[in-house]
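lol ok so funny story. i was supposed to be doing the assay writeup but got distracted and ended up predicting the structure for this chain instead. priorities right. anyway since i did it might as well share w the group, maybe its usefull for someone
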Amino acid sequence: MPNTILTTLALATTSLLFVASVSSEGVPVTTGVIPSKIIDVEVVNETPSFIVSPISFENIELAGEAVPINGFGVMENLDRELIVNTYRHSSTILYLKRASRWFPLIERILAEEGIPDDFKYLAVIESGLSQAVSPAGARGFWQFMSKTAPEYGLEVSYTVDERYDVEKSTRAACNYLKESYEKFGSWSLAAASYNMGRAGVSKHLKAQGVDNYWDLHLNSETGRYVYRLLAVKEVLSSPELFGFTLSPSELYSPHDVRLVDVSADISNLSDFALQNGSNLRELKALNPWLRKGYLNVKQGKTYRIYFPNTVTE
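and the output, tada:
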């Protein structure tokens, strides 16, 4: 909390959470009755802190498509995700910090691939913009499974896992989303299919006789998925409105890197890093797709390896 209150009062017009008062003997007591007089309460800052429900937006849209906010349950479902993502303070702050580093790259790729900019928030709800591993084994920013990844051009081998390559996995996600949009003609359904799969979405649309995400009855995860995407979009695009104020110096900057092309095996990545003015820690941080301490390169294959622009002496 930005304001420190030594004795916390939670008063409302219709309810009282906790009240600290002082008995006639001078002993602090806790009571559920609003006292006629409260004494010895020291407020350090003049402006008190209040927890309020986030604002729900009426004219909200996803990728240029209007969200039927007055549809049955739509506002409540969105409100739930706005509240969850506003008051998950540590996670949301990390999202904001990481977005400053990774959104410029992701935005560029989305634009090049013809995918609406709103889908950068899909990487946030999938992985928190981290190299996450799900209980099911999905990995990376975009959470590809090992079976699906090669279908979209990502190598998954003993020494290489391109699900951890942010640029390549973003392009792979774009290709999946383009196929989904071509099938459904709706970006909200394309987003839902990223969670459930196209076959699952098609099955539910046919069984329920509806043609849009907002009218579908789905499992809890997919039923909340697009609402969570919308909520993260609203919070991250207008953080101050939701109580998050970070200065530019508190945000993570994009990595300043140089590229080295590799088309032959590397027997020892530690030695390779040192030879290139870096070290293994920096090499692995910038190239998490390198899964072992060495690299096997197939004939005709070239990998681009990142190093910090600042050379380690």
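Strands lie at 19-22, 28-31, 61-62, 65-66, 257-262, 303-308. The first strand starts at residue 19 and ends at 22.
back to the writeup now i swear
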